[in-house]
Specification:
Number of strands: 12
Number of helices: 6
InterPro entries: Bact_HTH_transcr_reg (IPR050679), Chorismate_lyase_/UTRA_dom_sf (IPR028978), Tscrpt_reg_HTH_GntR (IPR000524), UTRA (IPR011663), WH-like_DNA-bd_sf (IPR036388), WH_DNA-bd_sf (IPR036390)
Protein name: GntR family transcriptional regulator
Structural class: alpha+beta
Distance between the termini: 31 Å
Strand content: 25-35%
Largest sheet: 6 strands, antiparallel
Strand order of the largest sheet: 4-5-6-9-8-7
Keywords: DNA-binding, Transcription, Transcription regulation
Oligomer: single chain
Radius of gyration: 22 Å
Helix content: 10-25%
Pfam families: GntR, UTRA
Shape: elongated
């Protein structure tokens, strides 16, 4: 980043500095790279550290920077688009799915999920845990709840534990004919487990996306996906494509 004096700039110094820093992030830094410390940056741009902090905080709010515990301030990965209102339907785990299977357990779902599945409270279901990465950094975590009657042939499969079992459950789910799905999005706070997986502090803002998958005239599965609010944005349209945003340009993933 080159040195630039800001005394003659008519707009607030921190706002102009934010613009200069944003341009430098695009041209001189790569995703995950650690920025120089505040003292060096302030000296390089000829501003007070308080002005620099304002600019860095604004860039963090816009999702351009991340404050990582024990690391420092790093360049954030491109925002991940969360498609809503889509007309395209597909089971989790099909070709083009950006999620990675992590584990699969059997447990009773939360009461709200049990109500969506219209199952008896306390009845155990398959819980597939998946994660989504962007440029090597976690941006979302998902819990996919699948009742036993949605994967009736699973018991006949020698499915090991962990990610292999998760993939086996998803393969069986895909045997059903998907009749449709709906999706809702709400702002929430990261729970302890999600915060740890997403490298955020508990209580950090997140987007919680609930997706219901329909087959055989019922809800066959429910997905609760938690996205980092600082790295995601909502996208709308009939194409259903999830978009990765690189500044002003958009590239379909």
């Amino acid at each position: 980043m080159g040195t630039q004096q800001l005394e003659t700039v008519p707009e607030p110094k921190y706002w102009h500095l934010k613009t200069v820093l944003s341009e430098a992030l695009d041209s001189e830094f790569s995703v995950g790279e650690i920025l120089p410390n505040e003292r060096d940056l302030a000296a390089r741009f000829g501003v007070a550290r308080a002005t620099l902090r304002q600019a860095l905080e604004q860039l963090e709010l816009e999702g351009r920077l991340q404050r990582r515990r024990g690391v420092g301030t790093t360049v954030a990965p491109p925002r991940v688009g969360v498609a809503v209102g889509t007309e395209q339907h597909a089971w989790p785990g099909t070709v083009g799915d950006a999620w990675q299977a992590v584990d699969c357990t059997t447990s009773a779902p939360p009461a709200a999920v049990a109500d969506i599945l219209e199952s008896v409270h306390g009845e155990q279901v398959h819980v597939v845990r998946r994660s989504r990465m962007s440029h090597g950094h976690p941006v979302a975590a998902e819990l996919l709840y699948i009742p036993a009657d949605s994967v009736p042939a699973l018991s006949a499969i020698d499915a090991p534990s962990g990610a292999a079992r998760a993939r086996a459950v998803l393969r069986e789910l895909q045997r059903l004919e998907l009749e449709g799905q709906d999706r809702s999005v709400e702002l929430g706070s990261a729970r302890a487990d999600d915060a740890k997986e997403l490298d955020r502090l508990p209580g950090a803002p997140v987007l919680v996306v609930t997706t219901r998958f329909f087959a055989e005239g019922r809800t066959a599965a429910v997905s609760l996906a938690t996205y980092r609010a600082d790295t995601c944005r909502l996208t709308f349209g009939a194409s259903g494509g999830v978009e990765i945003h690189h500044g002003p340009e958009r590239h379909a993933s």
